[in-house]
Amino acid sequence: MNDTVVLHVDATPSAPALLLRPWRSEDAPALVEVYRDPALRRWTTSVVDDEADALRWVGTQQEAWTAGHRFAFAVLEARPDAEPGPPLGNLVLKRIPPGGPTAEVGYWTAAPARGRGVAPRALEALTGWAFDTLGPGGLQRLELLHQVDNTASCRVAEKSRYAFDRVLPATPPAYPLDGHLHTRLRSAPGQLR
């Protein structure tokens, strides 16, 4: 797997084109701004208070990518004839056992990107990439978890065709409330996912 993977999401009549690429050190200042949002801090476990924190976070994502067990993508607005805009979100494929049948996806969106269809469209791109890249003979199921009170994440899961599977019991301190588990299965070749 190589860190030059770039995923493109076409524009829609109501939403811009998106670009998903691995996180870079130059994203650190924008990441600090994104993490000033209290709503984001509520749903994530990472702490990014300053540029040093952001650089550590990006470094961790890069190391995990190189090791092949976690693939985190910055979600950017793709602009024709210009550099992509600042990060609108994060998509991650994680908990990937070598050759194993199941992995997990996760995401967050920056405040300005919420309600614009960024997360479901980006998640759809990541899902297709994961199954196409790791699926043949391996990855067959993706799992998406969120706390029961995170209704926005539930909507993203549903829009991205991740079916509700079951309620998972709380496991404090990381998950102080019960959670929802959604899943998506790899389709047979030639079938819509």
UniProtKB/TrEMBL annotation:
Database matches in PROSITE patterns: GNAT
Domain of life: Bacteria
Coiled-coil positions: none
All copies of domain N-acetyltransferase, residue ranges: 18-178
Annotated Gene3D superfamilies: 3.40.630.30
InterPro entries hit by this protein: Acyl_CoA_acyltransferase, GNAT_dom, Ribosomal_N-acetyltransferase
Database matches in PANTHER family: ACETYLTRANSFERASE, RIBOSOMAL-PROTEIN-SERINE ACETYLTRANSFERASE
Protein name listed in UniProt: GNAT family N-acetyltransferase
Species whose genome carries this gene: Kitasatospora purpeofusca
